Each structure stands twice: as structure tokens, then as C-alpha cells.
Hints:
Blueprint: E1 3-9, H1 13-24, H2 26-33, E2 36-43, H3 47-52, E3 59-61, H4 65-68, E4 75-78, H5 86-95, E5 99-102, H6 105-121, E6 126-127, H7 138-145, E7 151-157, H8 160-171, H9 176-185, H10 194-197, H11 200-214, E8 224-225, H12 233-241, E9 244-255, E10 258-269, E11 281-288, E12 292-299, H13 303-322, E13 340-341, E14 348-358, H14 363-373, E15 378-383, E16 391-398, E17 401-402, H15 403-414, E18 424-428
Parallel strand pairs: 1-2, 1-4, 2-3, 4-5, 5-6, 8-10, 10-13, 10-18
Antiparallel strand pairs: 7-9, 7-11, 9-10, 11-12, 14-16, 14-17, 14-18, 15-16
Amino acid sequence: MNKINLGIIGYGQIGKKLISVLLKKKSELKRKMGVDVNIDSICDIDLAKLQKAGLKGINLCRDAKEIIKNKDIDVVIELIGGIHPAKDFILSALKNKKHVITANKALLSQSLAEICKVANENNVNMYFEASVAGGIPIIKSLREGLVANDIQEIFAIINGTCNFILSEMAWDNSDFKKALEKARKEGYAEADPSLDIDGWDSAHKLAILSSLVYSMDVKLKDIYVEGIHNIDPLDIKYSQEFGYSLKLLAIAKKAKGKLRLSVHPALLPKEYLLSQVRGSFNAIYIKGDLVGKMIFYGRGAGPHPTSSAIISDLINLVVDLKRDVNFKKIELKPSGEKLSVQDFQDVSCRYYLRIMALDQPGALSTISGILGSHKISIASVIQKERHQEKAVPIVMLTHHALEKDMQKAVREIHQLSFVKKKPDLIRIQT
């Protein structure tokens, strides 16, 4: 094999950067791979934009079928994102015996098992390193480097927008709105950031990671998801006094035949490496039975890291083809076949609880009594300023308790006449 022909679908920011890098580093890639990487065709719905780009010697089209049905093209790179028509393009490419590379986390979180099944049936490869954590080679590490390990835990900061916002709130004393505005200005947040701040972007990526690690067809409905839009600067301030940092964590944790899958704000001890991850960076902590604890750290999004991951997939494909490894099967079984997903209400952890209450005699003992009645014991408590007329914060850390018991207690505390708003509850991850 002397040459590999690419068909690229999508000419947005990532597509532009990828094409630029492939053209600029064409000689270097050939030297490293031993194969000439040739961009045969590029497809975008805005054909005029393509024609103005000055891409000489490359076929330009607006119909993806021209790429998918082109017998000279070996690899289709899908970069349009979303579910449809991206899914149709990928499935059609696989059925036409094309290897596929994609960065489409939303689609893979929904249809990874189906897409891999079609790839397996057609003896072609499916690569998606860029779908999780940008330039961090986490997919390859899990599929190959750590394949001998029983992965017991994954704790991941895999949304740069949320990590940037929480970092700004922690280090610059910004409120959520101000931090979000800065994230938009710096290019880390979309005009509509709901997918990020509501936790769903992290959930998409967690579904992909946990599907691979546990050979399960993990769906979004299997993941408990809670975003950061309700985080108050007070909670960051008080958690710091207790020695914690606040992060949006994606968690996969295996124990006793059950798999906990969740995305939510969590407090981490400041000495943990994940606590030190600031700005838009991503980090993934993994605990395996053979390697022990590992952490992967780097840029998690953007055209540069994504292009790096896509080219990494391309090199892996060439290596596989040169070794006559025709295809690598990914077979995912329905959840419950090997592991069953744990009901989040049965999760046990420690909690941070902030209650805004009028400073009345017996208030603290009443709250403590409610917690005790739900089998929740208090580890630490602080009561801030004392003003009889105003609500003041009562901040508590609990010992381990079940999520369902904690939720019942919070609902009951919220009904007390001296409690002025719903208590703020954050889980502690240790």
C-alpha cells in the first residue's frame, strides 16, 4: 500500500484545520507512515465556500454520496456532527467498505453499538479518538494499552467549558453568569451553552468511554446527569474552607456487579490531581487492577487537538492495514448481560449541604433531627453570620449516606418554615 485516499465530509472549523494540517505536513506524514495520504474529495453543503478556499487538485462536492460511492476512496472522515444525516453517511460508508473516522460524540453516544455492528459485518474499521477529550489519546489507551486491565473506576473532567467556568468562579470570585460570559468571550462556550453546562456533553463522552471499557451498550438514559447552572459562589467558597475543589465529574465506577454512571458537580480533596485541573483543560483518572491509578491530561477541545486525534486515528488505520489487520471488532452487549447499571438512588457517598435558614433557637437541632431520621450522620457543621432577621447559611458535611435518603431529607428540610430556599446539595468524591 503506497497511497491512501481520503474523503472528508464537512468543512467547518475542524474540517478546515484538519485539511490545512494534512496538506502542510503531507511530506512529514509520508515519512512517518510510509504511505502517501491523499485528500481525494471534500464535501460540504456550502459548495461556494469550498470553491473559494483555493483547494487545488481536490474534488469538491455538496453531495456526500459522491464520496461514499467513490471506489477510489479508502477512508471517509465525517466532521459534520449531529445525528442526522451524519449517521446515514457513516452507515452508508461502512456498507460501501470504507473505513470511517469521526469526532461525532453525540452520534456515538446514541448509536455506537449499531455502528460498530455494521463495521464488523463489512470487515472495516471504525475510529473515533477525537470524540472524547480532544487530543488526549484515551480511546486508543482503553482499546489497546489498557486492554488487560479490569477498569474499576473512571473519574473524568471532560468538558472544557464547565471546567473553565468553575475555575473562574473559584480563582477569580466570579459568579456563574460572569464566568459564562468570559467563557463565551474566550471562545470556550457556544452562544447556546446548554449542552455543556447542563452536563449532556460530558454524558455523551462518558457513554462512549464506559461502552468501550465495559463492553456494554451504554445509553444516555443509563447515566444520571446534573449540570452546573445552579452552582452558587458561596458553595465554592465554603467548600474551599473545608479543603475541597468543585468540578463537574463524569463517573463510571464498578462494584459488586453494578456499574455507577453519573455526571454531576462534585467536591474533590484539594490534594487530588484532578483538583488542580484549571481552565479549559480535560483530565481523566483511571484505576485498573494491573496498572493501578493513572491520569491523562491535556486540551480537550478545539480544531488543533481534534485534528491531532483524527490524524492519530489515520496513522493507526494505516498501521493496521500494513499488518494485515483487516478490522478491529468492537462488540457491545446490552447492559445487564455482564454488569447492570446501578440505580443512582442507591449510590452511597458523602455530601455537602448548605441550608439558608432564619437564625432561630432550635433550627440546627431540628435539621439534625431530620437528617438523623433518614440515617444520615453529620461529620462537620459551620453556621455563618448570625442575624435574627435574615437567612444565614448553615453548612454541613455528612458521612456516607444513600442518595435516596439524602433526597428525602432535603425535601423535608425544605418544608421547614425557617428555611428560605431549597438546600444546595453537592456530592463529595473521595
